[in-house]
Write a structure and sequence with these properties.
The protein is an alpha/beta fold and 263 residues long. It has 13 helices and eight strands.
Length: 263
């Protein structure tokens, strides 16, 4: 089977830099894949796209070495299994609150006897290659997000869930959990300390630690801290940022300030 290179890197304690796909378009996905990101995540939770878009975006990414991940809308087995069957090599599951919910996500990613993923990898077996049925359990990344007050209270029990590969931090929802603003709150000391607490828990339990960012500067900070999977930014944000900057320069005017959407 095709090797999940980012999962192999995390298991060795290495680091990867990824990107976010929030636009439901195959050409955008293919363009981002051609740039050399270690992984790209198709966002079905907040992205402006559907499952139909996913069936076009993942094949468009398959000519490159970038590992395809999908953030599913919710911790529902059918959502996870559908994303895997169309060719994702890993899923990011939002809003996980406790070990039971983390175990549910893991169970949906693994074929029997270790899980209850239904067998029917209609495109995944073609993309994954010969040996998919026997090797998928070891090559599919199960990543959960800790971003709620309950999730923080159960941090260690979630991180110690058997079969879990990584925890991914959504800074804006984490800020909500801490009683802070989803935009400016990420700069508060309380938020920064909590991020490091999650990183430390991942290290204690020998799983990868990931975090979402919206800037090169923030990405560099988290890589220096030792995070294993760091998101550099989203397709829509890259487009808007460059267009806004160059348009302002062309018109010799100030760049338009946009409402923050968090990161």
């Amino acid at each position: 089977m095709r090797e999940n290179t980012v999962l192999s890197t995390w298991r060795k304690g290495g680091q990867t830099v990824g990107g976010w796909l929030s636009i439901g378009n195959a050409y955008t996905a293919e363009s981002m894949s051609s740039l050399g990101f270690d992984w790209l995540c198709v966002d079905m939770q907040h992205g402006i796209l559907s499952y139909d878009d996913l069936t076009h975006m993942l094949p468009a990414m398959s000519n490159y070495d970038t590992v395809p991940l999908v953030r599913v809308p919710w911790n529902e087995p059918y959502e996870i299994m559908k994303a895997l069957d169309v060719g994702a090599l890993g899923v990011i599951v939002p809003m996980v609150n406790n070990r039971e919910e983390a175990a549910k996500a893991v169970d949906s990613c693994r074929y029997p006897p270790v899980g209850h993923r239904s067998f029917g990898p209609i495109r995944a077996a073609m993309y994954g290659g010969r040996g998919y049925a026997n090797e998928a359990n070891d090559q599919i990344a199960c990543i959960v997000m800790i971003e709620t007050e309950e999730g923080l209270a159960n941090l260690d029990e979630i991180a110690s869930t058997p079969g879990l590969d990584a925890i991914y931090i959504g800074p804006s929802d984490l800020a909500y959990a801490l009683g802070l603003s989803p935009t400016s709150g990420v700069q508060e000391d309380k938020h920064k300390e909590t991020v490091l607490e999650i990183l430390a828990a991942c290290r204690r339990h020998n799983i990868a630690a990931g975090i979402h960012t919206g800037s090169l500067a923030q990405t560099k900070i988290h890589l220096e801290q030792g995070f294993n999977l760091v998101n550099l930014g989203a397709d829509s944000a890259f487009m808007a940022r460059l267009a806004s900057t160059e348009l302002a320069e062309a018109k010799q005017a100030a760049a338009v300030e946009r409402e923050g959407t968090g990161y």
